[in-house]
Amino acid sequence: SLVVLFGATAGAYGAKLGSDERELILLVWQVVDLHSKKVGTLHKSLVKADNLDLSDQCREVSGLTPEGLGKAEPLDRVLQQFSQLVSSDLKVLGRSSYTLCSDGQLLIRQVLHPETSKKNFLLSDCFYSFYDLRKEFHTCYPSSAAMKDQTIKTMAEYLGLGTDETEEDFGVWQVKTMVAIIFSMLSESCNHIFTEPETVKYKYETGPCFFFSFFFLCSSKSETVDSETVIRARGLPWQSSDQDIARFFKGLNIAKGGVALCLNAQGRRNGEALVRFVNSEQRDLALERHKHHMGSRYIEVYKATGEEFLKIAGGTSNEVAQFLSKENQVIIRMRGLPFTATQEDVLGFLGPECPVTGGKEGLLFVKYPDGRPTGDAFVLFSCEEYAQNALKKHKEILGKRYIELFRSTAAEVQQVVLNRYMSTPLIPTLPTPIIPVIPPPYTIATGSIRDCVRLRGLPYTAGIDDILEFMGDATADIKPHGVHMVLNQQGRPSGDAFIQMKSADKAFLVAQKCHKKMMKDRYVEVFQCSGEEMNFVLMGGTLNRSGLSPPPCKLPCLSPPAYAAFQTAAVIPAEAALYQPQALLPTTRTPQASAAAPPTVTYYPAQAAQLYMNYTAYYPSPPVSPTTVGYIAAPPGAVAAAATATHTPILPQPGALVRMQGLPYNTGMKEILSFFQGYQYAPDDYNGLIQLSDQARSVLQAPKEWVCL
What we know:
Blueprint: E1 2-9, E2 24-33, E3 38-39, E4 43-46, H1 56-62, H2 66-70, H3 75-93, E5 99-102, H4 106-118, E6 129-132, H5 133-140, H6 152-159, H7 172-185, E7 198-199, E8 230-234, H8 242-248, E9 254-263, E10 269-277, H9 280-287, E11 292-294, E12 297-303, H10 306-313, H11 318-324, E13 330-335, H12 343-350, E14 363-367, E15 373-381, H13 384-391, E16 396-398, E17 401-407, H14 410-421, E18 434-436, E19 441-443, E20 452-456, H15 464-471, E21 478-487, E22 493-501, H16 504-514, E23 517-519, E24 522-529, H17 531-538, E25 542-544, E26 547-549, E27 571-573, H18 591-596, E28 602-605, H19 606-614, E29 615-617, E30 632-633, H20 636-645, H21 669-675, H22 684-687, H23 694-701
Parallel strand pairs: 1-5, 5-6, 21-29
Antiparallel strand pairs: 1-2, 2-3, 2-4, 6-7, 8-10, 8-12, 9-10, 11-12, 13-15, 13-17, 14-15, 16-17, 18-28, 19-27, 20-22, 20-24, 21-22, 23-24, 25-26, 28-30
């Protein structure tokens, strides 16, 4: 038997059903006995939604009103009645089992499953298997229109059935017509058989996406993942687990191990995830959930590529593969472990109330390439109860440190381990071809003249071309290289940009003309500001109605010489800045060695020049940050040629820049300053290169002071 099912929400109708997160307000159904070709009673139930504000399209198409819906039963009660009435009708027809049949997949996948998941009640088993009438119809009648173009009306017209919708109530005509279509498919001329229903997965299957026996670098790059099955979800709460993401996409079938949480360079989640679905049809439905909500936050959903997914979720090693070989385990990540912590210490910390699967075999410590511990570990638990008991120990003390515990995923295990082992990131920031660049200089505006504008609220997908189109005729008044996109700490657009105009009058006119003008689907705020304010924000401060708020550093935030773009009268090349390859880990130099050492010229990838010419990374990652650019020192011949061909100053090798590793997570500015008490910052190397303000010079030259970079 089939139960023909039709429904409607308080919002969009037809192909956009469920795309606006509106609640179900109508269910209509009828039982069909495929053998005797008899039907049961046709039932129609209104559903009381939490929000009774109906869209104009809903009012027009359905004829329903908030007053009528206010008297209806809530969804959980309606579904109980549905099960009872279907069972009663089946008994009358002499049948015991049934499968749902709906017009397309939207009602089941995009409405019922997401809504019941948000309202925290379970759907009965019958909603996890159904027939898509459009697919069955196209199989029976291959010469009919494509499935995506099919509707109940077009299918009825193809068969020559009556299509006057005004004869019946909304929903009743649709179900009666669907029943008539099914009977036509069962006729002797077609003799269609319903054999392969659509299925909805009961739960997300965790586990590694791929297993490989070769150690750590023999990853899934040799495998292929269909790009038509992958999406990128952005804006996730930082504590989201793979199960939370699977719940957000409830009703859609995610591939096994198909949720890969993205991490930043420090191994922390950055609010993004790549999700792989079982086919392109499921992926397309997932894209319709763009800006749906997870709790109080809306989640952006975009297309992604199989290559991106593999780079995040595909790598593994023998150690990781063995750790993840135990399937259907709950993974917990521990962070902040003492470096001396042993397996026995961790097992003792967790205690007997949350036993680890396999004892010591259920622990995986993350280490650096040289074998030093990172303070991270992953733990396997056999059930949800044990995992919950472990999570209750969040921020309890082990040794002298508090330990953080989070839910984790197999993809995160692979990503963290590989990120620690490999010296380069899984997804390189810049392309590999290299060319020397010694371009002519240009200056970044400074001073109190209000000849700049700030754009706030830009779409995250907006680029330079979008900004220029947004400004219209005013683009002619922008200074060369005067557009600066502000990126967040993950290197993605923050929604802010600064533009240098040719004069304060031009900036004022742009602010008046473009303020709250629409760009794509968002309005953009435009404010006039000064070059000083612009540089202040680019250094990490904030600019709002209350005025300027200083950058995070309490001392004057002076960038190291490599970031001369932030200094008052600094000059930087048009396409790249010059800095030293040894900036992160400088070697100790003697006075004799420094006098003889030739200047270093840096080679940059061709596309990177354009990237860092126009884009300014947000504090604490200034433009052309050596932490994100894979730079290569030029040959000695190129150095000599560059030095004679331009008067652009080349920075000397630093002697006082150090990198600190292994800091406790709660370390503050005072602790760092205290650690370096008695040491003095040497300003002599940079006085001739960068023009410093009096305040900056006084800080640099003050005895026994340390300037935080």
